[in-house]
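User: Predict the structure for this protein chain, please.
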Amino acid sequence: MTGARLTSVQLATTRGAATAPAWEFTLAGSAVRLTRIAVAPSAIVSVAPPSWDPDSAPGGLAIDSASGTVTGRQLSVSFTGSPGTRNESCGADYTAEAVESAAAIVVIVHEHRHPGDETCPAIGALRNASAELAEPLGERAVLEIQQGLPVPLSLNEMSEQ
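Assistant: Here is the predicted structure, written as structure tokens:
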């Protein structure tokens, strides 16, 4: 290392972008810059996802993101699902269910497949479903069901009644 300077970096959080202090290091003979978040180790929160066992995994599809309002009771989630509806061969419809605590919301997406014994291609499409919350979203995190990790949350500006 040939130098270090205190700077700031943009980080993605479950509530959008945040600015954090960081150290930027320069390396001899290289244009590469290394950055390291400059916060006390005690301030860092680390989430270790559980080991993945498909035989004991909870039901439902994992969500990729969510959107809603702080004061609203409607939460829309995005996930990868079937390109077509349940009325089409190899299609599916989806419903969402919210499991809530004071700190977080887990959204379980249920798949309702086209009836019949079909061989379907492994093609996915961006799909959406909405879940009704018992309480307004507030400051709670939204978690995906398979590993319990937070997903990006877009907050709409308009409040819901």
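The mean pLDDT is 86.
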